[in-house]
Amino acid sequence: MVTGRVQSLLVGALLWLLALTLCTWVYWPGLAGPPLLDDAANLRPLELLVDQPDLITDVVAGNLSGPLGRPLTMLSFSLEQVYLGGDLRAKKQLNLWLHLFIASLLLVFCRDLFRCLGQPHALALSLGVASLWLFAPLLLSTVLYSVQRMAQLATLFTLLALWAYLRCRLTTGWSQPAWGLLSVVALLAAPLSKENGLLALPLLMLLEWTVLRFSRFGALARRRWIRVHVVLVAGAVVLLVMVILLRPEFFHAGYGGRDFDLVQRVLTQTRILWTYVAQLLWADSGGLGLYRGQQELSHGLLQPVSTLLAVLGWCCVALAALWLAWRRATAGCAFGLGFFMVAHAMESTIFPLEMYFEHRNYLPAVGLFIALLSATSWLVSRLSWCVNWLLLVWLGLLGHALLVTAAEAQLWSNNQVFHINAVNRFPDSARANMELARVLAEGGDLERALHYMAIGERLENNAGLRQQLRRVALHCLAGPAIAPQVVADLSATAEDFRDAKVSEMIYVVVKNIADGYCAETDMAALADRLKELTQVTDLHYVSPKIYVSLAILENHIERYEQALEYIDALLTRSPGSVRGLMMKLYFTSVLQLDAEHRSAIQKLQQLEAQGLLNRQQQYNLGLFTPADSASPE
Fold it and tell me: How far apart are alpha carbons 13 and 261 in whole angstroms?
C-alpha cells in the first residue's frame, strides 16, 4: 500500500511538472507583448528607483490605485525594479512564475480539501482542478497584463489563507498554531495586494460551513465558533444596510461618469457572470480580449428578457448550493459554487466599476473548477461505468483550453497584431479603436490612426475637448510636429472642464512632448492656446492636474513666469499641495524671487515637520535649502 501511494505521488508529480512546463511553453511568446491601459500610470513611478533605490517607500506608499493603495503589489514591482531590472518582459515573466506557483498552491489545497471530504481519488481530482485553472484562456490576460499582478497576489494570499486554515483545522500538536498564524498573516496580506482580498475571510467562513462543519470542536467551542461566524455575517449585513441608508452617495457617487446606474449594473452583471462561466468551461476565442464592445445594459428584468433568465439561473444555483451543502457527499460541489459567487461579490455587484474584465475571474475560477470536479467525482461514485467518458470530457476541456491559450499568447506577443485583432473581434468597442489609433500613430501612420480614432469617437458619443486633445496627441505621436491648424482648431466650453478625461488628455499631450515626441511643434502657440481654453470656465473647475501639466509645458519651453502663474493658481485652490509648493520652490529659484522662495521653503518645512513629505520631497527640499538646484519634473 505504501509502495502504491508513493508511486501515485511520483506519477502525480511528474504529470504536474509536465503541465507546468507545457504552460510555460504556451505562455512564453506572450511575454514579448506591449504595455497596456494603466500599465504606464502604475509603473511609471518605478523609474525613480533606477538612480535612487532608497525611494522604495515613496513608490510603495504613493500608489493611489485603490483605497488601500495595494502596497504589497507595489513592493513586489519595486523590489523587482531594484534587483532584477525594470523591463516590461521581466514583469510579465515574473507574473508567469507567479501563475505557476499559484496553480501549485491550488493543487495542494485541493488535495487536502478532497481528502477532508473523503474523496477516494483526491490527487487525481486536485490535478484536474489545478490543470483546468492553469490553462484557462480567460485567465491569460491576468498574467500578461502587467499590473494585474495585484489580482495574482490577492489570489495567492487568499488561497494560502484557505490552505493554512484547512491545515490548522486538520492537524494537531505544535504545527497547528503555526498554520493558524500563517492563515492570519495571509488574510491580512490579501487586501494589501488588491481590495478584493477582503473576500478571503468570507471564503474561509464558507470553507468552515460547507467542508469542515465545525468538526473536531467540543460542544462548547463549537457553539462559540458558530456565534462568531453569525456575528461576523450579521455585522457585515448591518454595516451594509447602514451605509445604504445613511450614506447612499457612497455607492451612487461613482456612477456620475458611467453610462449606467447602480440597478442597471447589478442586473447586467447577472448576465455577464454567465458569460464568464461559459468562457471558463469552453472558451470562445472570438469573445476573449482585454477590450470589450459595448455591453447591452439591462434596464429591467425583461429588458432584455435574458436578464430574467440570468437572475433565475443564479437563484437556482444559490438554492442548489444550499441543498448540496446539507449532504456530505456533495459538500465539495456546494463549496465550489459558493466560492465562485462569493469571489465575485465585490467586483461584479454594486460598485461602479467597468462592466467586464477577464481578470475578475482569476480567483472565482477556482470555485467553478472545484465544483465541476466534485460533481464529476459524485457522478462516478454513482455510475462507475461513465468514468472513461468523463475522463474524455476532461481531456477535451483541457485540450481545447490549451490550444486556445496558445493561440491567444501568440496574439499578445505583437503590439499591432494584438490591437488589430481586438478591433476585429470587437468593432463596436470605443477603447479598442482608440488604442489601435494610438499604436498606429506611434508607428507613424497618422492617416489610419485618425480613421480609427474617428470610429472610436463615434462609439464613445462624447464630443468635446476630450476628443480634440486625443487628436492632438495622435499628431504628436505620429510626426515631428503638431500641425498649427490642429492647435488653432481647439475649442472648449465650461462643461468640458468638468470631464476628468480632459485633465488626463492634457497630461498625456504634455507627457508626450516632454518625452521628446513632436519636437518641431510650435510649443509657445500650443501653450497659449491651452491657456485660452482654461479661461472659458470658472477656475474652480480647472483641476490641479491641468495646472501641473501646463506648468510643466511652460517649463519645457522655459517660460518660467507663466509656469509660476499656473502654480500660484494651483496653490490658491490647494494651499497645502506639496507638489505645488515644490514646483513653486523651483520656479521662484529660477526667477530669483527671494521672498516667495523663502516663503515656499518655510511652508514646506512646516509640512515636513508634520510628516507630510515623502523621502523624495525631503531630498529635493534639502537641495534647495543650501543651493537652488532641483527641477519639478
Answer: 50
With b meaning 16 or more CB within 10 Å and e meaning fewer, what string describes 423-459? bebbeebbbbbbbbbbbbbbeebbeebbebbebbbeb
What the block records as the C-alpha cell of 120 is: 477516494
The x, y and z cell numbers of residue 50, run together, are: 533606477
3-state SS, 510-570, equals: HHHHHCCCCCCCCHHHHHHHHHHHHCCCCHHHCCHHHHHHHHHHHHHCCCHHHHHHHHHHH
Evaluate whether 540 touches 573 at the Cβ level (below 8 Å).
Answer: yes
Query: How many domains is the chain partitioned into structurally?
Result: 1
Contact 481, 452 (CB under 8 A): no
200-207 vs 149-170: helix crossing angle, rounded to 10: 30
pLDDT at 633 over 70: no
Structural domain includes residue 46: yes
499 domain-assigned: no
Q: Model-level pTM? A: 0.93
**pLDDT, tens digit, 9 for 90 and up, residues 325-366:** 888 889 999 999 999 999 999 999 988 889 999 999 999 999
At residue 236, the 3 state secondary structure works out as helix
- Domain membership of residue 445 (yes or no) is no
For residue 348, tell me if it sits in a domain: yes
Q: Roughly how many angstroms between the first and final C-alpha of the chain, as a whole number? A: 69
Cell 460547507 sits on residue: 210
Boundaries of domain holding 109? 12-213+248-411
Please answer whether residues 38 and 23 qualify as being in contact, where contact means their C-beta atoms are separated by less than 8 angstroms.
no
